[in-house]
Structure formats: C-alpha cells, structure tokens
Amino acid sequence: MIFITAKFRVRPEYADRWIEIADDFTRATRDEPGCLWFDWSRSVTDPTEYVLVEAFRDEEAGAAHVQSDHFKEAQQTLPPHLVETPRVVNANVPQDGWSELGEMAVPQQG
C-alpha cells in the first residue's frame, strides 16, 4: 500500500473551520475505490496544524487519486487557506492495513 502522512499549517483565521473547508475533498477521496483511509487530526500543541494520514491500495490507486477531479479542485481551493506548502512523507509499505502495536497489547478481559 501507499502510506502518506502530510502536515498542513492552516492560516489562523481558518484553523477552526479547516475540516469543513476540506470536507468535499475528504468525502470524495474516501469514496475512491482504492482509498484505504483518509483521516485528519489536529495537533495538540499547534491549533493551526492538521495532520492527514492517508493510504491507498497500490500505486494505481494513488495515481487515480492525484488525477481525480476532486484532487485537481483541491489544488486550487485549499492552498489559499494555508500558511505554507504542506510537508509530506510518502512510502510504499508491504502490508494491507494497520498492524497491532504488540508492545502495548491490551490484556484480554474475562
């Protein structure tokens, strides 16, 4: 799978509305057949920073994402709300989803 994490620094006047501003893009991306997940989180130390954790089934799905109409629209509509170009880590990972963090295993109840 392709695993991507991106940091978005949002202009302070838009920070509380960022999820709403990015909502159409988020919904359309989550509806892509090759999207495994597309999840936003807000930094606990910087209220203007959002982190996007996303994954796509394979390179074909990743290519379809960046060639989609909603991605092209987001390239136009989202940057005016940002302080700087988002920073990203993009990697091919040899698995299909989340693995358990065994070092913090939760004991079985009962």
CATH structural class = Alpha Beta
Radius of gyration based on Cα positions: 16 Å
- Going by helix content, strand content and strand pairing, the class is alpha+beta
Task: Provide the number of structural domains.
Answer: 1
Strand composition percent: 25-35%
Average residue-wise pLDDT? 97
Q: In what order do the strands lie side by side in the largest sheet?
A: 2-3-1-4
Helix content: 25-40%
Order of helix and strand elements from N to C terminus? EHHEEHHE
Which spans have pLDDT < 50 for at least 5 consecutive residues?
Answer: none
The number of E-state strands comes to: 4
The CATH architecture? 2-Layer Sandwich
Tell me the CATH topology.
Answer: Alpha-Beta Plaits
Count of DSSP-assigned helices: 4
Mind describing the biggest β-sheet? Answer: 4 strands, antiparallel
Shape: globular
Alpha-carbon distance between the two ends: 36 Å
InterPro entries: ABM_dom (IPR007138), AI-2_Isomerase_LsrG (IPR050744), Dimeric_a/b-barrel (IPR011008)
Organism: Halopolyspora algeriensis
Keywords: Monooxygenase, Oxidoreductase
GO molecular function, one term: monooxygenase activity
Give a description of the structure.
With 110 residues, the chain is α+β, with helices and mostly antiparallel strands. The protein has a single domain, classed as 2-Layer Sandwich (Alpha-Beta Plaits), CATH 3.30.70. Helix content is 27%, strand content 27%. It contains 4 helices and 4 strands; from the N terminus they run E-H-H-E-E-H-H-E. Strands 2-3-1-4 form a 4-stranded antiparallel β-sheet. Helix 2 (23-30) packs antiparallel against helix 4. The N and C termini lie far apart (36 Å). GO terms for molecular function: monooxygenase activity. Keywords: Monooxygenase, Oxidoreductase. Residues 2-90 form the ABM domain.
